[in-house]
Design brief:
Helix content: 25-40%
CATH architecture: 4-Layer Sandwich
Number of strands: 13
Number of helices: 9
Bound molecules: glycine
CATH topology: Glutamine Phosphoribosylpyrophosphate, subunit 1, domain 1
Oligomer: single chain
CATH superfamily: (Glycosyl)asparaginase
Length: 322
């Protein structure tokens, strides 16, 4: 793809997008790409753009981030997010949030207002209060219905208790989608940034933290290379440190598209006999973009200066096993 700046790429998650949700997903990622691109067009920074795009998706209950986040084993929400500035390599991350409306905004506050990178749980919630962040109940009726449906199915199954997560995912893949949201961008000055936010896996054990807030696993940005946001099963992204690995491949000379495809192939080789649904979006310092996945769908969108409106799709390059 031609190199252009400014450019933004967003994803609303890998997984299986059921027909009744597909239009909502496409509309949602387009809205997010447009919100981010509007920031870039006004000479805003890549950091402002990815934050704006992810906030748009956190406020959209179509996606598993912010409002509409997945419910954990105890039927409550624990959200997580991270943001990274490629110009300075500064990053902020947060997890185990129960009622902060925009986790990505708290991640940015942690990056800018503290000496730390990752603050989780009660202290993170407290920080949100100190900085007057808006609170909102992220639990939606739809997620509650999914949760109850899944619970009933488990009850009717062979085990009295939860089988391992992988077995659960084999039996009920439609409920295990990790519809993380993410955005990567390059601004007019050539600065890149990445932001990723999620409610995590449905039925996760409380306290479980995935890849989205882990710098290098779900999110990475470096002006000298580019940026990447991952979606899918967090444990897989953590094992293969996917976001940083994508940046390393770009650094070696691969295009963002090649880097994303190589890594999804690597996922297919390394992770066998457990279901995995992964997706990656990447951008390099020239503004070239890439997207690949091994899941049924990757709901994603992008916008460049030559486009009047964002393009969106439910698939990118699908990388199959074997
Ligand atoms: N990628 C989101 C998660 O596994 O939590």
């Amino acid at each position: 793809m031609e190199s252009q700046r400014p450019t933004i790429v967003v994803h609303g998650g890998a997984g299986e997008w059921k027909p009744d949700r597909q239009n909502l997903g496409i509309l949602g990622v387009k809205r997010a790409a447009k919100a981010g691109f509007d920031v870039l067009r006004r000479s805003g920074t890549a950091l402002d753009a990815v934050e704006a795009a992810v906030m748009m998706m956190e406020d959209d209950s179509t996606f598993n981030a912010g409002l509409g986040s997945s419910l954990n084993l105890e039927k409550s929400v624990e959200m997580e997010a991270s943001i990274m500035d490629g110009e300075t390599l500064k990053a902020g991350a947060t997890a185990l949030l129960t009622n902060i409306r925009n986790p990505i905004h708290l991640a940015r506050i942690i990056m800018e207002k503290t000496d730390h990178i990752f603050i989780a749980g009660k202290s993170a919630q407290r920080l949100g209060e100190i900085f007057n962040l808006e609170k909102a109940n992220p639990v939606t009726k739809l997620r509650e219905r999914h949760w109850l449906d899944l619970k009933n199915k488990i009850r009717q199954g062979t085990s009295g208790y939860l089988p391992k997560l992988s077995n659960l995912m084999k039996s009920y893949p439609e409920f295990m989608n990790a519809d993380t949201v993410g955005a990567i961008a390059i601004d007019q000055l050539g600065n890149v940034a990445a932001a990723t936010s999620t409610g995590g896996l449905t039925f996760k054990i409380p306290g479980r933290i995935g890849d989205s807030p882990l710098i290098g696993c779900g999110n990475y940005a470096d002006n000298k290379i580019g940026a990447c946001s991952a979606t899918g099963i967090g444990e897989i992204a953590m094992k293969l440190v996917l976001a940083k690995s994508a940046c390393c491949l770009i650094h070696k000379g691969y295009s963002p598209q090649e880097a994303a495809e190589i890594l999804i192939k690597r996922v297919n080789q390394a992770i066998q006999n457990t279901p995995n649904q992964m997706g990656l979006i990447a951008i390099d310092k020239k503004g070239r973009i890439g997207a690949a996945h091994n899941s049924h769908h990757l709901c994603w969108s992008y916008m460049t200066p030559l486009m009047k409106s964002p393009k969106a799709s439910l698939t990118a390059k699908i990388v199959k096993s074997g």
